[in-house]
Amino acid sequence: MYRKLLIAIDPEDDGEAKCALETAMTLLAEDGELHLASVYSPGGGGFFPYVTEEAPEQKEAEVRQTLDLLGRKYLPMNRNASLHVVAGSAGEKLVGLAGQLCADLMVLVSRGSSGRWSLRRATVEYISVNAPCPVLVLPSLEKPSAQEADEEGGSAGGIH
């Protein structure tokens, strides 16, 4: 069991948050600390989450409120989480936060086949290589459609 978990969450993806928090609860020691983090880019599109053009203070407040709601929605009543919302490069900020918190484990959810996959993959790889703690990368909940699978050389069903 881990004593200090850092969970990187895209607050605009409820399913991702549910998956990450449910997994975290199975890994966290009874008296362990849970930290929820989201990193945004104050100047435009970001990774955790995708950000539109808004004032950084406004976006930070919105993200913090959403993280709080997700925590209350998916964490057991007897569990609390510390919230961390920071602006900047997602990979660098999450690695830095893990070091600052002395996290035992960082949990991320990979986007897999989404439109932002290349950015997500690069960020997940950066974190995996540079984090001061082990990193657990959970698979995306999104499955490619039958058409996307066919375009990638896969099949929509059956055994081949």
Question: Which percent range fits the helix content?
Answer: 40-55%
Please write the string of helix (H) and strand (E) elements.
EHEHEHEHEH
Assembly category:
single chain
Helix segment tally: 5
Straight-line distance between termini: 41 Å
Low-confidence stretches: 144-160
Shape: globular
Give the spatial strand order of the biggest sheet. Answer: 3-2-1-4-5
Secondary-structure-derived class = alpha/beta
Q: How would you describe this protein?
A:
The chain is α/β, with parallel strands linked by helices and 160 residues long. Helices cover 41% and strands 22% of the residues. The chain is built from five helices and five strands, in the order βαβαβαβαβα. It has helices spanning 14-27, 56-74, 90-101, 117-130, 146-151, and strands at 2-8, 28-40, 82-87, 105-109, 135-138. It has a five-stranded parallel beta sheet, sandwiched between helices. α3 packs parallel to α4. The N and C termini lie far apart (41 Å). The relative contact order is 0.19.
